[in-house]
Amino acid sequence: MRAFARTFFQLRLRDMRLVALAWLLNVFIRTGLTLTSYKFLEPLLPAKPNGPAAPEAFLRRVRFTVFYSGKAVPRCTCLVRALTARTLLAMKGHSSTLHVGVAKNPGAQMEAHAWLTSGDSVVTGEEGYDLADYAILPVGPS
User: Fold this and answer.
1) In this structure, what is the dihedral angle of CA atoms 52, 58, 27, 51, given to the nearest 10 degrees?
2) What are the tens digits of pLDDT across the range 92-102?
3) Rounded to whole angstroms, how far apart are CA atoms 68 and 19?
4) What is the pLDDT of residues 57-90, one digit of tens each?
5) How many whole angstroms from its chain centre is CA 134?
6) DSSP string of 41-108, one letter each residue
7) Helices 78-91 and 13-35, packing angle to 10 deg
8) Distance from the Cα of residue 69 to its chain's centroid
9) How far is CA 22 from CA 96, 97, 108, 123, 142, in A?
10) Model confidence pLDDT, tens digit, residues 4-39
11) How far apart are CA 12 and CA 37, in angstroms?
């Protein structure tokens, strides 16, 4: 946690604000998914399905922010990070699509994964995963 704080105070002010907001969203979403369900929580989070895709520079900031702030939240899963990123993008008027998939490994233990895209760019969930190995499940409006 000390390294997190040290790095946090080395950020520019606008990035500090974005990291703080992402951390609060991560905590809210993680707590909401623990106490309730996705079905209950999803309508509370802003989403913008129709709108312009985010520019690559902003996507880089959101990727860093969500990944970095998620380190300070216990059990911050891929779904929590994807929903946090979707909320940050929607707050700036950018569209995104939430994907939830199940690994196509017959005979193996079921493995699910969530990721977020904006336009043709993967925003969260790509690190360490080959997304082509997942069958996408319908998640409803996002």
Assistant:
1) 0
2) 999 999 999 99
3) 8
4) 999 999 999 998 998 899 999 999 999 999 999 9
5) 17
6) HGGGS---SSSPPPPHHHHHHHHHHHHHHHTTSTT--HHHHHHHHHHHHHHTT---EEEEEEE--TTS
7) 130
8) 11
9) 16, 18, 34, 14, 19
10) 666 777 778 888 898 899 999 999 999 999 999 989
11) 35
Distance CA 5, CA 69 (A): 11
Match 């940050």 to its residue by tokens: 88
Answer yes or no: are the C-beta atoms of 112 and 141 closer than 8 Å: no
How far apart CA 125 and CA 117 sit, in angstroms, is 9
pLDDT surpasses 70 at 140: no
Length of the chain: 142
**Alpha-carbon distance 88 to 7, whole Å?**
21
How far is it, in rounded angstroms, from Cα 95 to Cα 54? 7
**Which residue in this structure is represented by tokens 């929903």?**
83
pLDDT tens profile 96-119: 999 999 988 777 788 899 999 999
Residues 6+ apart with CB under 8 A from 1: 72
